[in-house]
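Predict the 3D structure for this chain.
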Amino acid sequence: MNNNRLFNILVAGALKEKPPQVDISEKVIATLAAPNRRLGWIWDKPLMWIAAVSSVATVPFVTLAVFLHNIWTGPLFEISKAISWVM
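Done. Predicted structure below.
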């Protein structure tokens, strides 16, 4: 019962509070109407360049891995392995 009474006191206090009047519409309109917003130069983003270089370097390795996987696990690989063992 005591918890309910404390909760009701907190609710009553919260309902009496008035939020501050803040007008941010001018700042929002100014930001949206700005003709040339600077989003940042490409050179300012070193992590983006590191990711791009590592992606470009990864493509040949992935291509080679897929090619080798297809060769080594092809359907005729098991048959040729069995024939070479018999011979």
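The radius of gyration is 34 Å.
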